[in-house]
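Hi R.,

Here's the input for the magnesium ion complex you asked about:
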Amino acid sequence: MSRRSFVTTTNDPIIGIDLGTTNSLVAYADEAGPHLIPNPDDSNDFLLPSVVAFHEAGNVLAIGREARSHAVERPLTTIHSVKRLIGRGAADLTQEARRLTYPLKSHSSEAGRDIIAVKIGDRRFTPQEISAMILVELRRWAELHFQRDVTRAVITVPAQFDDAQRQATRDAGAIAGLDVIRIINEPTAAALAYGLNRAEQATIAVYDFGGGTFDISILRLEDGVFEVLATNGDTHLGGDDLDHGLIGLFTREIADSLGVQIASPAIRQQLRTLAENVKMQLSDEDVANVEIALPPSLTRRGTGEVYPPVSPLGKGGGSEAVTCHEIYRRKITRGEFEDMARPWVDRTIEACGRAMKTAQLNPADIDQVVLVGGSTRIPYVRQRVSEVFQRRPYTALVPEHVVALGAGVQASILAGVKRDVLLLDVTPLSLGIETMGGAVGKLILANTKVPCRASEMFTTFKDGQTSIKINVLQGERELAADCRSLGVFELRGIPPMPAGIPKLEVTFLIDQNGILNVSAKELRSGMEASVQIVPTHGLTREEVCKMQAEALAHAREDMSAHHLIDVRTTLEFDLNKAERMIHQFGRLLEPRELRRLLQQVNELRDLAKISNNAEELNRRREEFDRAVLPLAEMAMSETLKEEATKM
Ligand code: ADP
Ligand code: MG
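And here is the predicted structure with magnesium ion in place:
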């Protein structure tokens, strides 16, 4: 970690930090809005696991992801979850200490207060000092990103943190060389990330289900100021519990089917990686494969070590280890996982009820629900939250990122960055979806007043298509490639039908906060899927103007390109349909007639490939449609005859 090579100036950026129990992140905001700062070694990685690994002698071995990977072999010297300890006295921590893998020591300070510390070899580290190590690492990310000194920060804390915990968090910042200019509540940051402070007044529920803790907060926004009306939750309820539930299931089944007791903590830690991967996979898919290779020593009821489990994502490294081992293998469905998770999710929902009671509010009084924390990616959690608040929660931002993004927004407000608020009354750019051939079907045009809603019907292009990808686009241009893709989602599980038969209703809904909800429903089968997006995220007014100007400049060529795509698509659709008919009913035609039609199909296919003349293609298609008409009529009466004989 080389330090201090940058120059300090008065307009140094202010960063926003989410110092989490499980993961920590750093963000900032410019006129386009908030952005996360990535790990300098991996530009797609924004999460710093809040873990510090030490050598036995007490010097730091690793921070973050690498440190977490040492937790397996080094439970005594790998320090995690210090947020649970920060600012708390020894007396409060007797319960907590039992759950940690590493030892705590307490001693009295000169002021007579007991000070808690983590003991590594002969050395002691206060929770503030360990938190500071995490902050130093985040600061390093920020300095590399900005290529300059970063000395000022906003740090978030849970709403229920008391003064001592807040002060200790400030102290951690100071140890890390940061001037902590503001401590803000995590739920307030979450609301800021969604820009909810722009409303005049609102009542907002923030449901935060993280790795080890659950918090529900109810906020009241009045004239730009957030007040916490109620908090509730559980400091020992999080994604870790779900991991342990799965570990319990796997170990029980291994014991039952193979007669093996897995007792070693190292093995349990390995099972844990597997369990977390299975859990995450079930957030996206309906079923996950579980596979663990057990070494012979163990299955012969020995006490040897288990081999690394084979991860369902294929990252597990079990490949070389599977020589002649007994394998524990099973599939787990999302339904089974939901049954297992239910008691924990029930507890979060009960806490939501208690928070509403404290605030003396009913679900109808809550204007917005914001989801925070990695565990809210679980579809079942989303469903239960929607039910208890009787409202679709905001999910447009990645739930692990929300608090940091909001801290970035708060930092930029304090730094005096003028946020270029694009949206509130109208949509600055058109919104639509990609249609066949790379064209854009616009549903909401630029400058439409919000809130607004638009629906349009689409269908499939191929026979037997069971899924449809929906690419949500923003921009004024006519081709998808020239627009900005805001997100892609898939509607799955459509029963196979001939092309053109499914009735796909796509609905765009923009609410008063500018959040876009896109849903797609196949009306014959009732299958549904949706995605939520913040369309103005990361857009400046300048960029909007540029996109509008480009659309103007290319208007004519864009229109003709779009027209050509439509003509080609229709031609191809008609050719496919004719080919199916020829295949099925061609025997009804004179051989000469049949040859002629087939020849025409081939000719038109070739022409569609080379010709850019939309008029010509259209004319030829119409001619062809007329030529196929007699066959279509024969096919129709043949089908009716067949139906009649069946009856
Ligand atoms: P914290 O606020 O406690 O620092 P995070 O918000 O980063 O925690 O959430 C971490 C938790 O989210 C972990 O338990 C992790 O397993 C869980 N998690 C992350 N992604 C998913 C997912 N796709 N499905 C289910 N749980 C997830
Ligand atoms: Mg968190």
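One thing worth noting: Residues 20-23, 210-213, 238-240, 276, 279-280, 283, 373-375, 377-378, 400 surround adenosine-5'-diphosphate (ligand 1) (CB under 6 Å).

Cheers,
M.
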